[in-house]
Amino acid sequence: MTRSYDERLAALDGAGGPALLRGGLRGVEKECLRVTPEGFIAATDHPMALGSALTNRYITTDYSEALLEFITPPDPGTKATLGFLGDIHQFVCGTIGEELLWPTSMPCRLRGEDDIPLARYGSSNVGTMKTVYRRGLGYRYGRYMQAIAGVHFNFSLPDAFWPAWAAIERRDSSTAELKSAAYLGMVRNVRRLDWLLLYLFGASPAVCRCFLPGGAVGLVELDRSSYYAPWATSLRMSDIGYKNESQAGLWISANSLEEYVADLSRAIRTPNPRFERIGVQVDGVWRQLNANQLQIENEYYSTVRPKRSALSGERPTTALRRGGVEYVELRALDLDPYSPIGVEEPALRFAEVFLVYCLLAASPPITAAEREDIDFNHGAVARRGREDGLVLRRCAQPVAMRAWAGEVLGRMQGVAGILDAAAGDHYRQACSEAVARLEDPGRTPSARLLRDLHEQRQGLGEFGLDLARRHRGHFRAMSPQANSHGQLLETEALASLDRQCWIEEHDTLDFAEYLAAYYA
Known about the structure:
By secondary structure, the protein is α+β, with helices and mostly antiparallel strands. The protein has one domain (5-519): Creatine Kinase, Chain A, domain 2 (2-Layer Sandwich), CATH 3.30.590.20. 47% of the residues lie in helices and 12% in strands. The chain is globular. The protein starts with a helix and ends with a helix.
C-alpha cells in the first residue's frame, strides 16, 4: 500500500533526514539572448572567445546563434552553483564588447524571423544534426517561439538517500528501478503542481508587440510597443509561449519509465501530415530531421523531464533504458529580470523543497481526465494567476487557487525544516517568502514588473534595455581577479575548439548515413 506524505516525511526524519538529503547535486542551465546596444538580437557569430558551442561544457547556444546557454556543473552547494553562474556571466560580458545580455524571458525588438540567426555548430555530422534540428523547429513552430529564454534547474538526491527510501517504501528492487520509480513520481507531481511555480516565480506578464504579429488575443495594450495581461504570471509558459497549440495533442506519459520511453519513441516514429508538407530535404537542403511528431526527444516541451547523462551519440531514451533516471530537470522558471544572473538563491532553495515534496507526496498514475485538469490549471495560472478568486480544478472539482497553494506551502514546511537542519536556515526563509507572495500577489515578480512598467511609463523593450545595461555595469565593475573560475572558463573555451576540430576530422559517414545510424 502506498504510504502517505506525512508517513514518508516522518519516516525520513526518523531515519536521519538531514544527513540523507545532504549532498544532493544541483545545476543550472540559463538561457539569454545576445542583443545589440539598441536591443535588437545580435546578428554576429557566436564569439570565438567563448569557444565551440558544440563542445564547450559551460557555454553553448540554444536555438539561435545569439541565444546563449550557460551551464553550471553538478555541485552539492546552491551558493557554489550560483557563484559559478555569476563567473560565467562575468566572463561572457568581458568578451562580447558592447553587446548586452537580454534580461527577460520574452524577446523584444524583433523585425522578423530572419532577425533570429540559426545556431551553427560546424561541419561535423553531430553539429549538422543540431543545426538541422533547429531549422526544423523554426519551420514547425516559428522562430519567435525559439527566442524565448528561461532557467532550468537540475536536481538529484544523494546516494545515501536511496537505501533509506527503499526501507521507507518497503521495496527491495534494484537501485536503478527504485530511483526511476521515485523520480517519475516526482515528475507526475510536478506536472500536477507546476502552476504554483508560475505564480511564485513567473516574470513574463508582458510581451513586445512585435512578438505577436498576428495580434494579441486577451492582452491589453501597454503602449505602442507592448502588450500585457493584467493578471498574468508567465506568458512564456502560456498558449502564446511554449504551451502553444502545435503540441497540444501530444502527451508523454510519466506513469512509468517504460511508458515514458515508449511514448517518446512512438512520437519520433509517427508521421505528422503538417510536418510532411514542410518536406525533409528540399532542393538538397535539410529542412528538418524527419517529418514525424517529434524530430528528437528534446522537441517535446514539458515543465519537467526525467534525465540521464547520455554517452556520446546516445539518444536520451536509450540512456534512460540503459541506466534509469539519474536526475530531474525542472524547466518552469522564468528569467528573473532583476537579477544580473537571471535567478537568485531563494528561487533555487524553494525549487529544491518543491521537488523533494513532490517526491514524498503520493503520486498515483495520471489519467486522461486528470491531464485535462493539469492543462487547465497551467494555462489559467500562466494567464490569470494573480486574479482575485481564481478557481482551478482538482479531481475534476473546482478549488480556489490560493487555498490549494496555501495547503501545499503548509505541507512543504516539513521538508524545508529537514533541509535547513542539513544546510542552514535558508529553505524555510524561501518558503516564508513564497507564503508572503501568496498572501500579497503584489510581491510576485510578475506584479513587480508590471508595476515598474506602468510607473516608469516604459514599454518592455525600453525597460529590458535599461536592465541589461545595469547588469552589464554590474559585471564590468567587478575585478577580473574576483572571477574564481575565469581561468577554467578560458581554458575550456580553447579546449572546446580543439575538440570540435577532432570531431570534424574523424567523421566517416555522410550525414544521411549518420542520421540513419542515430535513429537505429
